[in-house]
Amino acid sequence: MSPSEHLDGNRLLSRLLGPEEPEVTCEECFEHIDRYIDFELAGGDADSAIPGLRPHLEGCPTCHEDYDSLRAFLGEER
Fold first, then answer.
1. What pLDDT shows up at residue 75?
2. Helix pair 26-41, 61-77: axis angle to 10 deg
3. Could you say which of 3, 36, 41, 73 is the most buried, measured as most Cβ atoms within 10 Å of its Cβ?
4. Is residue 8 part of a domain?
5. d(CA 60, CA 66)
6. pLDDT top residue among 49 and 13
7. Is the pLDDT of residue 2 over 60?
8. Does 33 reside within a domain?
9. Distances (CA, A) of 2 to 6, 43, 53, 71
10. pLDDT top residue among 40 and 6
11. How many separate domains does the chain show?
């Protein structure tokens, strides 16, 4: 097994097992994502302010896509 195949296997296993820390649901993510991004753009500690959102974004492609779009939009607004 090549190093890249081993790394891909580790990523897949991590996604299947989920995060080691608590995470929010998709519904909770949707409710808090704008505030989370506001904390990030202001230079605050978004992960402490809204715990569990970052692990959810790392494991949920749909919510991560929403995050990327909203962050780009809010970043352009400022």
1. 82
2. 30
3. 36
4. no
5. 10
6. 49
7. no
8. yes
9. 6, 39, 33, 36
10. 40
11. 1
Residue whose C-alpha is closest to residue 68's, from 42, 43, 33? 33
pLDDT value at position 52? 94
Distance CA 52, CA 20 (A): 10
* pLDDT tens, residue by residue, 18-64: 556 678 999 999 999 999 999 999 999 999 999 999 999 988 999 99
Task: Indicate whether 77 pLDDT > 90.
Answer: no
Phi first, then psi: what are they for 51, rounded to 5°? -65, 145
C-beta neighbour count of 16 within 10 angstroms: 8
The residue range of the domain holding 51 is 22-77
Q: How many CA atoms lie within 13 A of 42 on its CB side?
A: 10
Taking the alpha carbons at both ends of the chain, their separation in whole angstroms is: 47
In a domain, residue 14? The reply is no
The DSSP element (H or E) to which 71 belongs, if any, is: helix 61-77
In a domain, 13, yes or no: no
